[in-house]
Design a protein that fits this description.
The chain is α+β, with helices and mostly antiparallel strands. It has helices at about 50-55, 60-65, 70-75, and strands spanning about 5-10, 20-30, 35-40.
Amino acid sequence: MYKIFTSVDLEFNQPSRRIIQIGAVVGDIDSGKILDRFSLFINPNERLSEFIIKLTGISQDQVDQGVSLKEGFRRLTE
């Protein structure tokens, strides 16, 4: 039987702080093994700052093709 944990990571645009990516992993606490991964781009409906593009490696095209924040959280909770 697994003792599981979930870790969620959000990437934000600046200075608006709109979410541009949701990432998550589910892991086994005892073994440290990753059991599942999740990553999804979110469309913030704005231009990414050059700083964030350089920091994260996320491109404007990736977020432009992303889903809405509401849809992203729906998928995460599935």
